[in-house]
């Protein structure tokens, strides 16, 4: 059995997350998590996100490499994006840097972009 390689590095440049056309956050302190051959995931520092747009949900998932993820729904003027953001409140040591950060499920109406 092979183990996935996970790396967490500072993401180059400035990153923005939008939902329903509204900017939820912008940061130059994002982290990029690369897990095996999966596409990179950008994690935003929580303090750089408008948390008033997010509502915590009861949804949880567990990753054997990262730990348990908590989820948030994004409330925009036009709709609610269910479980569209997640955070590892107590991540495993290999990804400890993502503690206090949020990642977003890129979907129709939710975008994560380098600006």
From TrEMBL:
Enumerate the InterPro entries for this protein.
DUF427, DUF427_sf
Q: What Pfam families does UniProt report for this protein, alphabetically?
A: NTP_transf_9
Superkingdom of this protein's organism: Bacteria
- DUF427 domain location is 16-105
Q: Which PANTHER family match?
A: BLR5716 PROTEIN (PTHR34310:SF9), DUF427 DOMAIN PROTEIN (AFU_ORTHOLOGUE AFUA_3G02220) (PTHR34310)
- Name the record gives this protein: DUF427 domain-containing protein
What organism does the record attribute this protein to?
Answer: Ponticoccus litoralis
């Amino acid at each position: 059995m092979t183990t996935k390689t996970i790396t967490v590095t500072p993401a180059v440049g400035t990153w923005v997350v939008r939902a329903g056309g509204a900017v939820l956050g912008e940061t130059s302190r994002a982290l990029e998590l690369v897990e095996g051959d999966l596409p990179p995931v950008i994690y935003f520092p929580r303090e750089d996100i408008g948390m008033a747009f997010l509502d915590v949900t009861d949804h949880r998932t567990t990753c054997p490499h990262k730990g348990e993820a908590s989820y948030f729904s994004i409330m925009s003027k036009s709709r609610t994006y269910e479980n569209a953001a997640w955070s590892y409140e107590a991540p495993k040591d290999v990804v400890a840097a993502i503690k206090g950060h949020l990642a977003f499920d890129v979907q129709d109406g939710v975008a994560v972009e380098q600006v």
